[in-house]
Design brief:
The complex is a heterodimer of chains A (370) and B (322). With 370 residues, chain A is α+β, with helices and mostly antiparallel strands. Chain B has 15 helices and 4 strands. The radius of gyration of chain B is 25 Å and the shape is globular. The chains are: A alpha+beta (370), B mainly alpha (322). The interface between A and B is medium-sized, with 32 and 26 residues. Bound molecules: adenosine-5'-triphosphate and magnesium ion (MG).
């Protein structure tokens, strides 16, 4: 029985193939997960990102064993785990609600998994002490969950899940209840813990910034499907469709006519008549003259003098964000455009109604498959 | 378990103390408003303590010849609760063993009833608590149905089941499993079955309430941390429904120890309990002071048991302190 957690030295991984999850039956059936294919490498920090109700928790619960997939296969460290209960999988969960046992002390909570694995009292105590140190909770070991703060509870939940040294740690929006500062602190702490333990993390969040800053790879989900999977830079710079582009970061969507197509790129005509080169998605060859949707991030355009300007825009307003300002602009053909500019004392924000020339960073413009 | 907060810790006590400031128009103004409750309080105090006081007083009086009391101070009733004088030689004092046997039977049967109710009530409450929410009301309703029927009738129904030529014996004999009827009536067993049947809802309802409040995510957390079903039950579920067990035990034990109808009908004259003994003194026994003393004793036993129980079981309970 113990073998499942003992061999934590060997690096494991998760293989999900063709997993579907349907809740209910007949007319009331609800497809919570559709054809999920996913491979998570050992020691990876993998993030599931998506709007509320898209199936992130359901996928996590399938991996943990709280839900059985309706179809498909799930392997952990190469072994099929279908039919194994959560207590037979080398996987631990940090629950969104923490789910700490209220009648146990912090130390007893952390030691619970080891105790259930039948470890000796001495070993349980030693590991609990290590874990308490790891999450810096030694001083509060004898408190009960109700007597510590939310952030401390979160650390205890983490320590409790880490103590049995699972191959995989599942974290369901563990930071969503924390205030911004504590959240940033815990993000760093999570990264540190993951690096120190080498355990595979599957992290759920609906905060795109959190996903981008912490993950090795991100899977963007919507309505039970994985839309795109890749490194944060890939997801941000090359979103595969409108949903991903819209969900990750801020994006300008421009509907532009195609002037010509040359291999993997197309020349589009910008409002005002100037040409611009845009990358085409694989296999897309739009007809000349057809309208396509192109995207460009707000920080990938800059204000320039009238001579180099590719676009001309009128300022509608400015929103101050501390490090930078978002300028709300309208292009000459009426399409809205947001520009993000770093704040510098020598560059006061332009006045409303002012006309600006814009230039686009080379390679920034991408055509989307709608 | 270690108590995480030392109750004697003066720093902690000081931190917990409410700010002792009488703001003008604040607490000072509220201080006399309780007088508005005075009429209700008066009724309550008179209604609750008045009869009790009468019982205390009566237990120190002399029995009247045809029942009632004569106003003459005497500790004889209290003496006779525990002791007995030899009929021929009043100086020979022995323990009143028949009383002691009844005390013991009352306490033991009440404890057994409580235990039986807990054992039967837990799965019942669990079953209800795990039904879909809209059907739970129906199950709870079904549980309370016996309350709608007169206790005496319910007890006679039990009698019909267990008497010598009742349902169970007839059935067993018909199946050829037994030759003669099993004597169940007028035994402690009959009283136990009857009381468990009557008081079971009083255990199920608080248990259900505790389970309903229970955080089922903790059960998942238990499984996630490699606990088996049994371990989840023991380490996660039972500690969480403990307040329900405590409330249920109190609700069952207290009426059980004073039960009158059930031991009367099912136990007959042989397996008497405290309630019957007390009733006897006010009826045929015509010894009201003794009845009053026994009633006081029962009160003392119940309160004592309650305090002991809450001290031992209720102590160090994380959820309750929060
Ligand atoms: N037991 C269930 N029975 C029926 N439908 C369910 C069940 N559990 C989840 N669902 C549905 O499946 C969908 C996905 O739910 P899930 O909890 O996985 O969302 P999520 O992505 O975690 O959302 P959030 O970010 O709000 O936590 C939701 O529409 C939800 O209503
Ligand atoms: Mg969720």
């Amino acid at each position: 029985m113990d073998a499942r957690v003992q061999d934590a030295g060997i690096r494991g991984e998760i293989d999900i193939a063709g997993v579907n999850k349907v809740f209910g039956q007949g007319a009331a059936a609800f497809h919570a997960l559709t054809d999920i294919d996913l491979t998570i490498a050992t020691g990876e920090f993998f993030t599931l990102l998506g709007p509320s109700g898209c199936g992130k928790t359901t996928l996590l619960r399938v991996i943990a064993g709280f839900e059985q997939p309706t179809s498909g296969s799930l392997r952990i460290n190469g072994a099929e785990v279908a039919g194994l209960g959560p207590n037979r999988r080398p996987v631990n969960t940090v629950f969104q609600s923490y789910a700490l046992f209220p009648h146990m002390t912090v130390a007893q909570n952390i030691g619970f998994g080891l105790k259930m694995l039948g470890k000796s009292k001495r070993e349980v105590e030693a590991t609990t002490a290590d874990m308490l140190r790891l999450v810096q909770m030694e001083a509060l070991a004898e408190r009960r969950p109700a007597e510590i703060s939310g952030g401390q509870q979160q650390r205890v939940a983490l320590a409790r899940a880490l103590a049995p040294r699972p191959r995989v740690l599942l974290l369901d929006e563990p930071l969503s209840a924390l205030d911004l500062k504590l959240r940033k602190e815990m993000q760093g702490e999570l990264k540190r813990l993951q690096a120190e333990t080498g355990i595979t993390f599957v992290f759920v969040t609906h905060d795109q910034e959190e996903a981008l800053t912490m993950s090795d790879r991100v899977a963007v989900m919507s309505a039970g499907r994985i839309l795109q999977m890749g490194a944060p830079t890939e997801i941000y710079n090359a979103p595969v469709n409108r949903f991903v582009a819209d969900f990750i970061g801020e994006t300008n969507f421009l509907v532009l006519p195609v002037a010509s197509v040359n291999g993997a790129t197309a020349t589009l005509t910008l409002p005002g008549g100037k040409p611009a080169t845009a990358r085409l998605p694989d296999g897309m060859r739009p007809a000349t003259g057809a309208d396509v949707t192109a995207v460009i991030r707000p920080e990938q355009a800059a204000i320039t003098g009238p001579e180099e300007a590719e676009l001309t825009a009128t300022v509608d307003g400015a929103v101050f964000f501390g490090t930078d300002t978002h300028l709300q602009l309208t292009l000459t053909d009426g399409q809205p455009f947001v520009l993000r500019r770093q704040n510098r004392p020598d560059q006061p924000p332009p006045a409303t109604g002012e006309k600006l020339g814009l230039s686009l960073a080379p390679g920034a413009l991408r055509v989307l498959e709608d | 378990m270690v108590a995480p907060v030392d109750p004697a810790d003066p720093a902690g006590a000081a931190a917990d103390a409410p700010p002792d400031v009488a703001r003008p128009g604040g607490w000072a103004a509220h201080r006399w408003k309780w007088l508005l409750c005075a009429p209700a309080l008066t009724v309550l105090i008179l209604a609750a303590s008045g009869p009790l006081l009468i019982v205390v007083v009566y237990s120190f009086l002399t029995p009247g010849t045809l029942g009632g009391v004569t106003w003459e101070f005497s500790t004889d009733a209290w003496f006779r609760v525990f002791f007995r004088r030899d009929i021929f030689d009043p100086d020979v004092v022995t323990w009143n063993t028949s009383h002691l046997a009844i005390f013991w039977r009352s306490i033991s049967l009440s404890l057994q009833t409580t235990l039986l109710c807990a054992i039967l009530g837990f799965p019942t409450a669990w079953f209800i608590a795990t039904r879909p929410p809209h059907t739970r009301t129906i199950w709870l309703f079904l549980i309370t149905i016996p309350f709608w029927t007169n206790l005496l009738i319910r007890t006679f129904a039990i009698q019909e089941m267990i008497r010598n030529n009742g349902t169970i014996n007839t059935l067993l004999q018909g199946l050829g499993l037994i030759d003669g009827p099993i004597q169940m009536m007028f035994t402690d067993f009959a009283v136990l079955v009857g009381m468990a049947y009557v008081f079971l809802p009083l255990m199920v309802l608080p248990l259900y309430a505790a389970m309903d409040k229970m955080d089922f995510r903790l059960v998942e957390a238990g499984y996630d941390l490699y606990a088996s079903r049994l371990m989840v039950l023991w380490h996660v579920i039972l500690p969480q429904v403990k307040p329900g067990f405590i409330a249920g035990s109190i609700l069952v034990f207290i009426p059980a120890i004073g039960a009158y109808v059930t031991p009367r009908v099912l136990g007959g004259g042989r397996t008497m309990m405290l309630g019957n003994l007390i009733a006897l003194q006010f009826g045929q026994g015509r010894n009201w002071p003794l009845g009053a003393a026994l009633a006081m004793l029962m009160l003392i036993v119940v309160v004592g048991a309650l305090i002991f129980y809450l001290r031992t079981v209720g102590r160090n309970d994380g959820e309750r302190r929060v």
